[in-house]
Amino acid sequence: EYGGSIPAILIRTPGTNSASATVIDGFEMAKQGKAGEALGISLVSGLVGGLFGLVVLVLATESLAKVALAFTPAAYFSLGILGLSVIAGLSGGSLLKGLIAACTGLMIAFIGSDPVAGVSRFTFGSADLLDGVKPIFVMVGLFAVTEMLVQIGEPAWAKADKVTSRLKLPDWAMWKRLFRPQAIGAAVGTIEGVTPGAGGTVAAFMA
């Protein structure tokens, strides 16, 4: 996910769905002139999480497959509600605004053909909407366009004393500070990531 984190940190535009969570802290560090440090932390965290997930996948593939097959439709529905609740809860100080945003995203996700019945939903007779709205289009509209309008004026990081986007890997002191959050994030992200119906985006926000 490091590639998707680069635009998320530098220009507040996630390159992938899972990199949306990186915008919360990464872009704030960039505004403080610590973009290089944020890129280094993102690289290291992605490496640690990826290696941890790979080890778990290799050692527990059979067990994970049994767990996935045991999920029922009610469990999938509960996971969907959990994901929306997590994203709404992390949206800021107003829970109501977060819930409105989550419901809006859910309505956009409904656009397209029903995967079970094949019925068209909210397509308004347009064949272009039968496949639904692509996540990349939503991200460009929500993040890239708004940030572009903001950058027309003074950039948010223009007031920082020292601005650098050169990759800066964490030193030993930072490694010690990151150990506990990375361990928790790797465990939570792996468990949530392998859960059917959740996916990488929900795992990234929960981790």
Task: Describe, in plain words, how this protein is organized in 3D.
It is built from nine helices and two strands. With 207 residues, the chain is mainly α. It has one domain. It has a two-stranded antiparallel ribbon. It is globular.
Rounded mean pLDDT score: 76
> What share of residues is helical?
55-70%
Poorly predicted residue ranges: none
- The coarse silhouette is globular
Order of adjacent strands in the largest pleated sheet? 1-2
Number of strands: 2
What are the main properties of this structure?
mainly alpha, 207 residues, two-stranded antiparallel ribbon, 65% helix, 9 helices, globular
Itemize the secondary structure elements and their pairings.
Layout: H1 2-10, H2 22-31, H3 35-59, H4 61-69, H5 73-89, H6 95-110, E1 112-113, E2 120-121, H7 135-152, H8 172-194, H9 199-206
Helix pairs in contact: 1-2, 1-3, 2-3, 3-8, 5-6, 8-9
